[in-house]
Amino acid sequence: MGKKETITKQSPAPTHQGVNNVYPRQPPSPAEAPNYRRKGPFKNNGSAVTEDNCASTATRDLWDNLFDGGYRADVTIKTENGDTIYAHANVLGMASPVLRGMLKRAKSSGQKRSISIHGVHQDVVRVFTRFLYSSRFESEEMKEFVVPLFVLSHAYDVPRLKRVCEEQLESGLLNLDNVVDIFQLSLLCNSPRLTLISHRMILRNSKAVLATDGWKSMRYSHPGLEKELLESVIEEENNRKEKIRKSKERKLYLELFEAMEALVHICRDGCRTIGPHDKDFTQNQAPCKYRACKGLELLVRHFAGCKLRVPGGCIHCKRMWQLLELHSRLCADSKSCRVPLCRNFKERIKKQNKKDEIKWKLLVKKILKTNRIEGRISFTKSSNSLSS
């Protein structure tokens, strides 16, 4: 033992000149080892590779050559049309626990065991088996076989391939023609994210999807699922209409609020060529910031000169009466307000019937609520502060 220890501790001395006194270099420590991990997908001769594969290109080429050459293959895979694909049991068993169980139960024919993968085209089986070796796939093959590959990845428990198929579908292979089929498969293959994405596509393009062959097939094969989808489509359409209605309603309330601001602006400050009698209009006025001012100016001029100015006699005058009443209900201080008839409408409100009062209060409440949501300053507060 002592002799062996001294041998290991001593530095070896060169004994032959033929080796030029060159010895193998010490391998790098783990901290200094080169990092071969590649981030993101990359291509080699048109082949895309999954992101979580850190093997080098040469290593993947080696696995591809092993599959293509079939060197010492000990498994034959029988396809739907009787074609034979040669593979290696160790590779298949490590890549798929389902294939590992099939290989344990497989009968040997000479030195080779035989298993069968039916239900898909032979080219799909070949692409599937190649992926088990090198995690590679051709983009054109994936575009053509993404659906059966997705099914095989779930059936044979190959999560890496399943993730690749989901990403490819999300990236553009999911379309209106196959979205119904993908939706059904995602439910069967336990892919919640793909279920959500395909369901959203169906809801957004319901009219086009309802006319596809996939939907017609589902109508006969899964009528219960079709009923649920139709209910969700109807609900989505109702929600969309309700959203549009609320958007238009909100826009109307904002326009009414802007009209009230413009009315106070005209009656208090004056604008362009219209305003209070004591206002001195100059030629060089600053641009008006109120968008409703121009239309309201025309309405005020019409109201001042119309001979049918009674409520109900002229539609333009009727609109002006409504704006004046709405202002009085929004105005916080009618005594100092310079808008015409503000105080008169305050007195008239007290004598108004209950039904009309409820309608006006509801309108005022919605206008003020919309104004608060927009974060705008109330014109009643600003006008009162300036008048004081």
From TrEMBL:
Region (Disordered): 1-51
The keyword Metal-binding appears for this protein: yes
Coiled coil: none
Keywords of the record: Metal-binding, Ubl conjugation pathway, Zinc, Zinc-finger
Top-level division of the source organism's lineage: Eukaryota
Pathway: Protein modification; protein ubiquitination
Feature: compositional bias, Polar residues: 8-20
InterPro entries tied to this protein: BT1/2/3/4/5, BTB/POZ_dom, SKP1/BTB/POZ_sf, TAZ_dom_sf, Znf_TAZ
Domain BTB as annotated: residue spans: 73-141
Any one Pfam family match given in the protein's UniProt record, by short name: zf-TAZ
Record's protein name: BTB domain-containing protein
Species name: Hibiscus sabdariffa
